[in-house]
What we know:
The chain is mainly alpha-helical. It has 2 domains: 19-202, Up-down Bundle (Growth Hormone, Chain: A), CATH 1.20.1250; 223-418, Growth Hormone, Chain: A, CATH 1.20.1250.20. Helix content is 76%, strand content 0%. The longest helix has 30 residues, at 347-376.
Amino acid sequence: MEPNNNDTASLNETGExxxxxxxxxxxxxxxxxxxxxxxxxYPLLPVFLTSVLGASAGFVGVIEGTAESVAALxxxxxxxxxxxxxxxxxxxxxxxGIASVVRPLIAIAHSASTVxxxxxxxxxxxxxxxxxxxxxxxxxxxxxIRGRAFGFHAAADNAGAFVGPLIAFGMMSFFFASxxxxxxxxxxxxxxxxxxxxxxxxxxxxxxxxAAKEAHAPDLSQPLSKRFWVFLTVIVVFTLGNSTxxxxxxxxxxxxxxxxxxxxxxxxxxxxxxxxxxPGGAFSDRVGRKPALFVxxxxxxxxxxxxxxxxxxxxxxxxxxxxxxxxGFTEGAERALVADMVPADRRGAAFGWYYxxxxxxxxxxSLLFGFVWDxxxxxxxxxxxAILAAVSAIGLLFVTPRSKGQSTLKIRxxxxxx
Length: 418
């Protein structure tokens, strides 16, 4: 764990453990409501596009690929802008507001191109908000609990991903609601998200040196450190082995899990993620970010290797639960490490680069995995993913700390944890 000296969140004067505070809880609630709304729609969207609107499977891929690419680029631009104007909340509000307003409009779409426009606009909202939101979370808590703070936010996000599909399933199963009706009802949690983001989080003033204070401008000349760029390189390598989770569902079907139970399997994954996000983030606060990531990526490698070796349906259920542990160890730790490694005035841009690195690796990762699956079979594809994760975990050792002594300590911590 390598906190940045420019942090301004205050320690508890009595020496007690600092709390997460208003901003973290508020932004967690916003993400919860937003994910409830999103996941009421997202699992049903491919069926709606192909069965109702007559779109091809290829066009479904175009929609999602375009939407995510736009979001990845905007995360960098909006993060840089939030550093420049020294304000995070306006971008957070605008981002969540755009997504919450346009998302339910899928209910009135009568062509796949209309859905494309709506999904891209929805992802524009995500691109605008994500980097600024993460920078605001980092600035709202003391460095010693950043992992727990990001873990809490991820838990709230995953809880929404767990609840949303269940609401949609309940509406369709017990009230016989149509797809369009479910889409319209997603406006309710979306409205709650807008209300919460307007009333909940507050801007955090960041301390600056005397010259910057006099100029009333952030110091954007501060570099993002060599360690940060090495870490991003490792992230890209890991992402190349981290293909879309749709392949996990496909593998589960191969192992004999009925298609009808796929939503429940997905819910199990999100439930495990929700339960372990906060303990996993807090774990990174105690032992350090890199040891926590090392453990998480090692879990990922083991799970993928066993997915390749599995032969029975019950093993798919166990492995999906194990896959949730990987998220618990890493979702909070990765974002906390980004915040730790860069100056406070550059955090928005740093999170933008982080999300862009993941976005750059995501498409070739899925293409590569699918190619290997088709040519050599699913066990070989999953083994490839496991190897890339193991290589990335070893690569973490080369994300140099501030001193050689710290490097030795980090390595000892990693093997002590294992």
